[in-house]
Amino acid sequence: MTISHAPPDLPAAPDKDPAPGGLTSPGLEPIVPASVRRARLRSAPRWLRRTVGPLLLLALWQVFSATGVLHPDVLASPGTIARAGADLIADGTLPAAMGVSLQRVAVGLVLGGVVGTALALVSGLSRLGEDLVDATVQMLRTVPWVGLIPLFIIWLGIGEAPKVALIALGVAFHLYLNVYAGIRGVDAQLIEAGESLGLNRWGLVRHVVLPGALPGAMTGLRYSLATAWLALVFGESINADAGIGFLMNQAREFFRTDVIVVCLVVYAFLGLTADVIVRTLERLLLQWRPTFTGQ
Question: Which of 14, 69, 131, 199 is 20 to 30 A from 269, comparing alpha carbons?
Fold first, then answer.
């Protein structure tokens, strides 16, 4: 009689790996590293990410206005402000005011930029120039330039001159400080290297000092543009008969918060546009300088 020895039945393999202690672990979700999550967020267009904050603010503003939390006499709703802006554009009031304000800023920026840069070059490139110029400029820049409005009215009248002078004054100080700091921040070893290559004084200034001071000059230009718009607001309060500040003064007299906010939005838009232009110039002029752009 033949006896067959069949192998015993093997236990079925578990579906999941046993956990420590002989227990079967529950279903686990894969862990997504933080770097992967950041990469997913960065995959969205940058312009979309940058508009999330303003759009959320507008939505909250509209909700508060619709529910009565914000009274129209305190602050108009975004819809009312949009209609007011459309009306001002349709009748040509807003474009004309923007043209006048832009002209004032442009003239003041050019005058202040020339004066501030020239003084910074004199003071930064020469010790004698520093002794003659820097102390005076440092003393004058501590004087609140807005407080000079009464003197400007006495000296220059109430026309365009005091408005342009106020803008130019604010621009000149910012450019002077940043260009001067940029010149004095050039590495002394670069100067020695230029001298060892046979560069004369003008060659050192042209090929070493000015390129080294350019990052500081661009930073000063950004500050100067912001100051120019701030000075414009004060300048257009001096008996102005045109410009964005003139529209704001008129709207204040009639309690038109919608028009006031439209003018503020225009100021912000013009300032943002100017900053974008300067950033573009920085990318074009400072391609030789690698910088950290964030992660």
Answer: 69
Mean pLDDT over each residue of the chain, to the nearest integer: 79
Strand partners, 24: 18
The rounded distance, in Å, linking the Cα atoms of 116 and 140 is 13
| Spatial contact of 140 and 133, defined as CB atoms under 8 Å apart | no
Query: DSSP 3-state assignment of 288?
Result: coil
Residue 38 clears pLDDT 70, i.e. is over it: no
Long-range contacts of the stretch 117-121 (C-beta < 8 A, 24+): 117/175, 117/176, 117/179, 117/217, 119/172, 119/176, 120/175, 120/176, 120/177, 120/178, 120/179, 120/180, 120/183, 121/179, 121/183
Angle between helices 257-285 and 244-253 (to 10 degrees): 160
Q: Cα(49)–Cα(97) distance, rounded to whole angstroms?
A: 32
For the chain, the farthest-separated pair of C-alpha atoms sits apart, in whole angstroms, at 133
DSSP string, 163-228: HHHHHHHHHHHHHHHHHHHHHHTS-HHHHHHHHHTT--HHHHIIIIIHHHHHHHHHHHHHHHHHHH
Give pLDDT tens digits for 66-75.
888 888 778 8
- Is the Cβ–Cβ distance between 136 and 172 less than 8 Å? no
Conformation bin of residue 32: beta by default, left when phi > 0, alpha when psi is -120 to 50? beta
Residue 101 CA to residue 117 CA, distance in Å, equals: 24
The pTM of this model reads 0.71
Hey, what amino acid is at 278? V
